[in-house]
Amino acid sequence: MKVRFLANDSLVETEAWALAPALDFIRGELRLTGAKEGCREGDCGACAVIVGVRNESPTGLRAGSGFAYDAQPSCLLALGELEGRQLVTIEGLAAAGPTPVMRALAEANGSQCGFCSPGFVVSLTAYLINGDERRGALSVEGAFAAVEGNLCRCTGYGAIKRAAARLVEEFASLPLDPYARLDALVAAGVVPASCASFARGEILPSLARGEPSVEGGSLALGGGSDFFVRNPHPDPAAFPAFSLLDREPALRRVERRTAGGEERLEIGAALSWREFFSDPDILKLVPGIERFEKLLASPLVRERATIGGNLANASPVGDLTAMLLALGASLRLEGPTGSRELPLDELYLGYKKLELRAGELIAAVILRASRPFSLFNFEKVSKRERLDIAAVNTAAAFEAEDSAGGGPLIRRARISAGGVAPVPLLLKKASAFLEGRPLTAAAALEAARIAAAEASPIGDVRGSADYRRRLLERLVLAHFVVLFPGSGVEEAIS
Amino acid sequence: MKPTKESELNLSGATRYLDDLPATEGMLYGVPLTSPCARGLLRGIDASAALALDASVSVLTASDIPGENQLGEAVSDESLLVDGEWSYLGQCLALALAATPSLARKAAALVRIVYDELEAVTDARAAAESGSFILPSRTMRSGDPASAFSRCAIVVEGRVESGGQEHVYLEAQGAIAESLEGGRVRVVSGTQAPSGVQRAIARTLGLGMHDVEVEARRLGGAFGGKEDQAAQWAALAALGAARTGKTVKVYLNRREDMNWTGKRHPYSSDYKLGLDAEGRILAYEADYYQNSGACCDLSPAILSRTLFHAASAYRIPNLRVTGRMCRTNLPPFTAFRGFGAPQGVFVIECALDAAAREGGWDPVELRLKNLLAEGDSFHFGQPVADCRARRTVDRTLELSRWTELRAEIDSFNSAHRLVKRGAAILPICFGVSFTKLVMNQGGALVHVYGDGSVSVSTGAVEMGQQVARKIQVIAARSLGIPEGLVRVESTRTASVANTYSTAASTGSDINGMAALAACEEIRGRLLGLAARMLGADKGELRIESGFVTKGCEITELAWKELVDKAHLDRIDLSAHGFYATPGLFYDMKAERGSPFAYHVYGCSAVTATLDALRGTYRFDEAFIVHDVGESIDYDVDLGQVEGAFAQGLGWAALEDLRYDERGRLLSDTLSTYKLPDLRFMPSAVKIEFLEGAPNPKAVMRSKAIGEPPLLYGIAGYFAILDALRAVDRTHPTKAPSSAPYAYDLPMTPEKALDFIQGVRR
To answer: Which pTM was predicted?
Structure first.
């Protein structure tokens, strides 16, 4: 099989193994060594590159345009995923000399040892292209958020923050129309002219559409944020056949469907987390869910990680898994013998053990739109607030109404918890206890106590077993403090 | 500052780090096979399966080492490849070489070893109990603490723990060694100490140092981690090159680097502090149990810096501090920015915290009352000179509006139940100079080329601290020419010899002075020529902005013309400069002397907000007033303060280095070991350099900058502690009131919740 793509402004055709990490191909074969290997697990951002796509499935694109450019860690990217796309590396950005992003960082002295610098340039450049999620405008906070996946050990981030703030000021009047904006960025020297040409299909039209060009097989690669962490140097002999799910349009859309008189949202399992948190239907169904996006991974990783991947990874502490468990999601599984549906809370049989038959794939996550929850909250405690794995996480979804006594009466409740058992847990007893009950301080304390008793945590590098149990109790209380202010729960906590 | 060429190259991705250098024809890749448990006896190595993998594969073991199988400089206790017993998990047993990195990795995995697992010790106090030490303990004394304690109104005692810290230099360790004719080798090494690497290679290969050339290009961060510990990878690559006659590259990946290399030393310490009724410190005793790891490495020097900084910025008339280097079966702990000082400073700060609580004193007033002043002496006899402690603390209190801030925090805390704020201040006093006398020397080689451009080589390694920038400024100012004419070269043992590591914050002090000496020598020769050309007196001539000046007047004689003429007149346009820090002496037996050229002062104030429901915290603001002397480059010094503060804050409240009891590193990836990201840092960091504070003891009246600001981060620990103490407790605490205060760094959300729920106090 052949992989063909645009590397900056030159066409690359290669017979190289399509499942190889793009980082190795970029550094080794293309001899573009500006992208650095810092950790090979998406945690440092030193290997970030920009990937441009056009004319692909609508959810893969930024709203209102036929193209998208996003920063991604190239250590988590399979070479084959570049097929028909444009790879923009730091060398491509710098081809005509230092760009305004590079100049802003240099003038603020934002590069000390320099090893992380190309990654910061890439993330900030992608931010200028895209702006704030769901808005497109630039903001200082948004620019800071854009580099949350980039680690720097030298500067303490002060100079980088000053440079980011300066860039936001300098580019405050960028147009919001995607094509006009890209043209403006080309004119300002932020991105090379080849980006505007690629976005319009003016160069390499035959590559306009990414065609699935890899053999189907036993390994189905989603975003690679798990696969490449476990296989930092994958051996071709070990993976003779594989498929790249980002080439399956059916797995990458969000559809409203009516089945059996019930309205439902079917979310393609290969949807990236970034796409999940910006889909209007999902945001409408789960009000406020976007508040928690920043607690999940980093912008770089959210571009790679998929919904289905988080579920299939079966980590007992998957953040999105905890959210979807609380939201009462089901799965559509597709396998050699057909398709079936399974409630998410029945997927996990034991530690990393799934109720999946041979050859079966998680195709979609289903949320029932006709029975929404009006209240949703997510809690997570980790050593570092951003881009860290939780010691404990928990999500809660409630449907409540005002009771006769004036306080809220809980009609339906679903609370989940991660990091407290071998599997992601639906706290059935605590949820059942709450249903049909007015939310009083006493009821909240009792529900939290029941939740802690449902947990069977172990101790590891992220926290002792005892801590996790106590923390879960506090985080369940936090749901009530957040969702039911004025209910007296806060005052009752000691 | 103007953007420098270097930072634009970095930002364009053009800078070539070790792994970016193009592979050469026939290059081999070396992957070490390392020990599978913390202690073991190697009985045999079977490489047959590895050798059968590919014709390019070879496997080197201890018997292939032509010279001495030894890397240890202070104590010979560290073999290059294990021959017999190993003493930590991740120690190198063999080196697999092959034509590609993946073949070498596979080959290393195919090497079979036969071994006996032996019992291992990982805890410093357990090692001390069994008498397992690197070297005998060391004690410093002043006054008579035993009798002073009897006069104290308040005496506090307790234990303090501080965790290790992984360097996480973004560029991992590695080296490329090229085999030259006649058995010589040329090595590019990711090291802070090229001469040390040269010495290690000469020793292990049985060569003269003149047969080994080592170059350190720009490093992607080091922070002390590439001081002694870079030698191993370079010596392995050189061994491979010597045995195969080919170029050999050894470059670790992140997990290997984290598992196999040493970090900041964890300490477990006991303290006893006595004060009079007014809060004046009368006596202090501390016992430091340094977890040194399996080999000596730099542990003795690090311990000595702990002892020298035991009293931090405080006046303590009666003192006894003892340090023990406990040998355990963990990778040898090593240098990390601060070099033992942070561990010692944390202990005295904890003791003061406990005293403030017991005596009911305001923590700031207690510190002010005991702050060092002119006329005091350090406990090792050096007089406190040009003391800036009070100036920096006073200015920090002003800058942070401390009195108002405290009142705002107190009123916030009474208005909020589940959110609490806290604040702390921390003065610093950090001694500058290598505590090992011989290391306080350095050389430089300066060439002025015929076209007027200038090349400066020194022993300083550029690793992100921007020492090259400072040397460029020093050379340009000394020669009176634009900075753009000066290039600072990579660090090569053939250009400048017998150097010591770029460390101890002395990089620009020592190498800048050496460069200055060389530049002044050349300038003197050129001005002599200019005097003849202009018929002027040499004493009234200078070079400024590229022209010779006479008094206040600019002459027609330009730099380039002068250089051209000098060459025609056969005047030497090159010079070697040398600098040895003057005035240093120390009597190890008496533990008395003047080991430091000067001290760096400063103060930080940090505020934090605690979420008392979830046990999480966030830093809000930091105010730092730092004594930088006269800054050579404001942006470079600002970057050093900000960066060091971030590492200190990470050490104090985030970075959680964890080994299991069998010596296996649990936090061995960046997903399990978290370091500060942009959001971890306080949203507002205000840094001010002390004004009007030139330092006559260092180059261009500046002060060393690298390490001292790391200490400011310790204030973060106490800011969180302050917030934790404001938590309302409606039920009695589970920890008895007689229980000692728990001081256990880093603070983590788990420990914070323990405080909130009264499990610890």
So the answer is: 0.97
